User: What shape does this take?
Amino acid sequence: MTSEEQPAAPAPAPTSLANRYGGQKRTLGGRTKRNILIAALAAGIGFMAWISTSAATESVSFKDIGYSTPDATVAEADFQVTKNPATAAKCAVKALDAKFAVVGWKVVDVGPNAVDAGADGGRTTVHRVTIRTESQSVSAVVDNCWIPDAAK
Assistant: This one.
């Protein structure tokens, strides 16, 4: 048999990328792209509004300075509060025993301060509070301070 007489080898099955990997993916339409853009802009505007309003709320900070425990029924805490001088605040102060259990607790009113020519314009004031305790305390610390009207 000559090469012309031999039967031709079967042609390989047509394979294409579409058959192997699937058809071409659909692209987003104009309306879908526009809706995504609008949603992203709305989320961005909402985020910026949240940032600007949360930064505008009044804040208060505190720092423990020291403590003393004169006897088994009393603890004293010294702390400073930094806030807007015209704003009143409240601070929760606690006395702890050797196992860090709360043995005394008191909420202290920190009224508006007189504005003076201090380094920070009268924003920071120092306070001492006496706390009655159930048993001997080994420390006294500020738990938290807040602006009462801001919590509403």
